[in-house]
Amino acid sequence: MQHRIVVLGAGYAGAVAAGRLAKRLRREDVSITLVNAEPDFVERVRMHQLAVGQELRPRPLAAMFADTGVEVRLARVTAVDVDRGTVAVTYPNDPGRTGELEYDTLVYALGSAWNPQDVPGAAEHAHEIAGRPGALRLRERLAGLDAGAPVVVVGGGLTGLEAATEIAEARPDLDVSLAARGGLGDWLSPKGGRHLRKVFDALGITAYENAAVTAVAPDHVVTADGTTVPAAVTVWTTGFAVHPVARATALDVTDTGRIVVDATMRSVSHPNVYAVGDAALVAGPGDKPLRMSCASGVPTAWQAADSIAARLTGGKLPSTPLRYFNQCVSLGRREGLIQYVTADDRAVGAALTGRFAAFYKEVVCKAAAWGVANPTLGVPARRRAVTSPQTRPATV
């Protein structure tokens, strides 16, 4: 009897986990089902490019996982019963159809979406680029703007910086500004901060610093000090909220809904459930939680896949520490910033800037996409027989 592994979500973390499991385990011993609501893999790190009209290469999941032993199931997850070991789904291409998948091991990688943070008007009037639908809506809106129209990007993190610079470069006729809760790039090294300001000045982007946005209206935003900033379009990039399914389960989750896991990405409350990517609360160096990002998601996927394979085959559990090396920021197509960081993600003095940094970031993005699109390549084949299958939960 095959051991049933179900992976929920085919973003960077889920897709990488599924492909790595297929590389680690024998097909005759396991069945691997990858569940995703969309038929294509979405390069989330490029949504700001999609929003300004650039075309992205389509990456159908069915083609990516052909002949790998991974079954791609186009379905939307509506609930998980961790006590029975089942996943309830609906089928986007067949309205009204529902189903249930049983699993022996679950990899939860449903990721996150944008977080309007209960700011009045944000959900109604702001645009988001956390996924393809939102980026396409913003793309249509930007295309309809007349010259001189004001665009405000809210959020001074990596996503906000990339969105503001991409829009300003693609549409130099627009009046682009960015509202940051703190100082502009205040987490960067002095070299990185100087370069960021240089790029903002060259692109004509106005930075509102220490200006938390407290309300969003159809044609403006309001900051904490009462300043009104005109905005024909508001782009919201202030953080992410995880998928709500986990919070409705018996899993041990944080108050924000992230699944609490150990060093092997296994749930601390349910040993046959693993969580990766944005959905998991993962302790990094110094017990500091890893931030939600592709840079965190892919290593957690490696860790989970190798841990599952080790436990099923009697192998050695992975012991590679999860850490950071740099933060890669595109600042339009011609400029970039690679900020080197400590293991726990604090900036050090060294940074790469300019065109070479832009090239570096592009290589990183392409490498990440290649790793997903070629799920069983690039990792040495070590398919082992399952020797210690876990007991299946009794269904009722």
From TrEMBL:
UniProt similarity note: Belongs to the NADH dehydrogenase family.
Needed co-factor(s): FAD
Q: Where is the FAD/NAD(P)-binding domain?
A: 4-305
Q: What is the scientific name of the source organism?
A: Streptomyces parvulus
Q: Which UniProt keywords apply?
A: FAD, Flavoprotein, Oxidoreductase
Q: What is this protein called?
A: FAD-dependent oxidoreductase
Q: Which InterPro entries does the entry link to?
A: FAD/NAD-bd_sf, FAD/NAD-binding_dom, NADH-Q_oxidoreductase
